[in-house]
Amino acid sequence: MNLESIPLQAFLIVSSALFCIGIWGLLNSRNAVRVLMSIELMLNAVNINLMAFSSYIDNNLIQGQVFTIFVITVAAAEAAVGLAILLSLYRNRVTVDMESFNLLKW
Amino acid sequence: MSIAITSQFICFTVLSLVVIIGALGVVLLESIVYSAFLLGGVFMSVAGLYLLLNASFVAAAQVLVYVGAVNVLIIFAIMLVNKKEDLKPINDIKSRRVISTSICLTLLSLLIRVDLTNVWSLSSPQNSIGEESTIRIGEHLFSDYLLPFEVASVLLLMAMIGAIVLARRDVMSKDISTGLPVDQELIEKSSEPLLTNKN
């Protein structure tokens, strides 16, 4: 590969690593706020992917950037609702430990 | 693209290192406050990556929405729920860690394999429209993406109303699992003051 610019694969690898770190945090953290942060990390990884593809493959109609705008919108709404749910849970249970939220466990 | 290729590489390396190390810090650090501020750093570096991809509008939106709104919201939530509690130990935490780490590493290796082995059909002049991308996004939003744009406004309104309803204090009058009435006083008021237990 000639090095005229940064290869697309570099962006893809960064976003893959970010996504897997997000999944690890989602599975392993016990603080509910950290779970929300991990979800934000995963959304950012997906956004990096969309932006890289839109810049390298679809650089005339940049539809990936429009998709990223929509993902950012949905992520903002998700963060607001998630933190409101978290506050409501904290008010009822006085804890943010994920292990104590087992009401739906069968 | 106006920046020279060497400085592009240096910028990309620094930004991606900050993204990866910051994300590791977000999930691994003990203190949740450090995690929140590192998350802000990760968001800023992702905005830098967008600038490197010639997308100035999305980079600005990223900084405004993520750093300015989502991160501040997370810090406020930490401030509202920040109570030192000693978590109950889980007996099979070791096996859980091993299983989840192996799942994540497997997924990472699969993703990297796909990234490296697939033949991407790149269009030849990269980043050809450059600074026109903001105009192009505006055209998209008001022509072929008009319906998602309007639906997004409805979604934001619903999220706003839902957040207000959920975060109000008098939603539940009793605990769902125990049936006991929930104390509607301010929880923060009954706990000890924040600054006096430092000594």
Automatic annotation (TrEMBL), chain A:
What Enzyme Commission number(s) does the record list for this chain?
A: 7.1.1.-
Instruction: Please state the gene responsible for encoding this protein.
Output: nuoK
Q: Which organism is it from?
A: Prochlorococcus marinus str. XMU1401
Q: Which family does it belong to?
A: Belongs to the complex I subunit 4L family.
Q: What is this protein called?
A: NAD(P)H-quinone oxidoreductase subunit 4L
Question: Transmembrane ranges?
Answer: 6-27, 39-57, 69-90
**Keyword NADP annotated:** yes
**One Pfam family here:** Oxidored_q2
Q: Which InterPro entries match?
A: NADH_UbQ_OxRdtase_chain4L/K (IPR001133), NUOK/Mnh_C1-like (IPR039428)
